[in-house]
Amino acid sequence: MGWDEGRSSTVYGYRVHEGICPIFVTYAKSDDIDASINYEDRFISTDIFEWYSRHNVKMTDKEMVQILSGKTTIHLFIKKNDDEGNGFYYFGEVSVADAEQETFQVSEEKVEPIVRVMLRLKEAARYDRYLLFEK
Questions:
Q1: Are 56 and 110 in contact (CB under 8 A)?
Q2: What are 78-125's pLDDT values in tens digits?
Q3: Number of neighbouring beta carbons within 10 Å of residue 109
Q4: Cβ-contact 18, 7 below 8 angstroms
C-alpha cells in the first residue's frame, strides 16, 4: 500500500487511509476462535465476496461511509486459514455491490451492529484459486 510503518502495523482486518482500504480475511476460522471475531466471510461466486465489517460498526460510521462511498480503492486479500501463516492471496480491487446493516452475536448476552458488504471483484477469481477456498 506504500504506507509508512506506523499505519501498516495493525490493521484489524481493514483500514482506510489516503483513499485506500486493504481488507484482510482469514477464510476458514479455527474452531477455537473467539466468537466475537468469528465472521462468516465467504465467496458467493468467483466475482462476489460476502464480507463483514468489525462488530460494533454502523453504516454511518466515518470509516464505513468511506468504504461504501465508491471513492475509496478497496483491495481484497484472503488466506485460507491461520495454519498458512501470515501470507495472503491478493484478489485485486473490489467495489461495493451492496451493503446492509445487520446485528452480530458477540457473546450470549451481547449483540452489536455489523455491516454485511457484498464486494464485486474487478476481475473474477481464477477458478482454481476460488476452489482452494470453497473446498
A1: no
A2: 998 877 777 899 999 999 999 999 999 888 899 999 999 999 999 999
A3: 6
A4: no
List pLDDT tens digits, range 4-35: 655 544 567 899 998 999 999 988 877 777 77
List the one residue out of 8, 33, 112, 117 whose CA is nearest residue 70: 117
